[in-house]
Amino acid sequence: MKKILTKTMTDPSQRRVLVFGAGGYIGPVVTEHLLELGYKVRALDLFLYPTQSVLEDLSGNPGFDLVPGDHCDRPMVEKALKGVTDVVVLSGLVGDPITKKYPDASKKINDEGMRALIGLFKDRGLDRVIFVSTCSNYGLIKDDELAAEDFELTPLSLYAKAKVAMERELLGLKGKVDFHPTVLRFATAFGLAPRMRFDLTISQFARDMRLGRDMQVYDAETWRPYCHVRDFGDVIAQVLAAPVEAVAFEVFNAGGDVNNFTKQMIVDTILEFLPDAKVAYQEQGPDPRNYRVDFSKIRERLKFEPRYTVRDGIEELVRALDNNMFADVDERPNFYGNYEIDYPPSAPQ
Ligand SMILES: NC(=O)c1ccc[n+]([C@@H]2O[C@H](COP(=O)([O-])OP(=O)(O)OC[C@H]3O[C@@H](n4cnc5c(N)ncnc54)[C@H](O)[C@@H]3O)[C@@H](O)[C@H]2O)c1
């Protein structure tokens, strides 16, 4: 094993961050933010969805380069890791519905492929390895409970089960590796980004209510935490810059207490902007998740507080819809949501 790094290079221009899954919803926002802070960024993505265009604006930036490819492709990943100081892992088959629809791909990408990828990080002189996990790991908890990082994990979906397994894999490497891993359990994302995902609650509700679509809200009283994509950019940057002792082998819920919302609270906030929108309610929907999350650890240890509230995100999205920013939303469902994949890719005709 190479010498354990004890000192982080604090000058971002001396660091090159490899962002796995840079071409999805959250990835481009994180990538752009790190470039703005002076980091060099290498983006790696398989483009499971037709989202190649989302990184185009960054292609002229001298600190940026793109490696198209699969995180399961060992020789390609080994090449991409050359000259890299830090790693952010966002790649994966993301969401309960898509992992349920494609269980084999989920196993290959989120379990076997991710485990092998984690195995490639050691002995390369890497400093930070940030693994992005999910607050979905808490599953279904009682209404009067708040999940802090040590709360029991009861993942309900293939998606969350794989995240829990990979967290354990990474945290089990203490004393065995030369890099410093951090697990960030992200709240559910909202906010404008080059690739919007209208399969996520806040964006879906705002779009459907703005476009006057029939909207069924299931289990309106269920809680979830939410976080703006730009705040996720800040969180990642803060973990990269934090003293090693504050983040190595630590798990953080990433979000803020003010953004724990029920679906009813989301609908009510959207109605402030769209008072005439129609909403129907149903009980016993297909997604039983209900969790309120405690974000005090990230607030106290990393001084992280989200800059954006759910209301800010809704306002921004309603304005964008007013300006017809997503006129192609029905023509390109798979650009705007995780619905269909071709994995492993079928041979070209
Ligand atoms: N969006 C959310 O609400 C949310 C909430 C909690 C956690 N997260 C986590 O944040 C991360 C990013 O989420 P997102 O919403 O941007 O998802 P996304 O689906 O938009 O992006 C994931 C990206 O990973 C890429 N990818 C998938 N498999 C790959 C592979 N084998 N090799 C290389 N690239 C691959 C996809 O092509 C896609 O561009 C994920 O790890 C997700 O679990 C997201």
Which key phrases capture this entry?
349 residues; Rossmann fold; 32% helix; alpha/beta; binds nicotinamide-adenine-dinucleotide; 12 strands; disordered N terminus; three-stranded mixed β-sheet
What does this molecule look like?
With 349 residues, the protein is of the alpha/beta class. The chain has a domain at 13-189 and 228-256 and 291-307: 3-Layer(aba) Sandwich (Rossmann fold), CATH 3.40.50.720. It has 11 helices and 12 strands. A 7-stranded parallel β-sheet has the order 3-2-1-4-5-6-10, sandwiched between helices. It has a 3-stranded mixed β-sheet with strand order 7-9-11. A two-stranded parallel sheet has the order 8-12. The chain is globular, with a radius of gyration of 20 Å. The structure holds nicotinamide-adenine-dinucleotide. Nicotinamide-adenine-dinucleotide binds next to helix 4, strand 5 and strand 7.
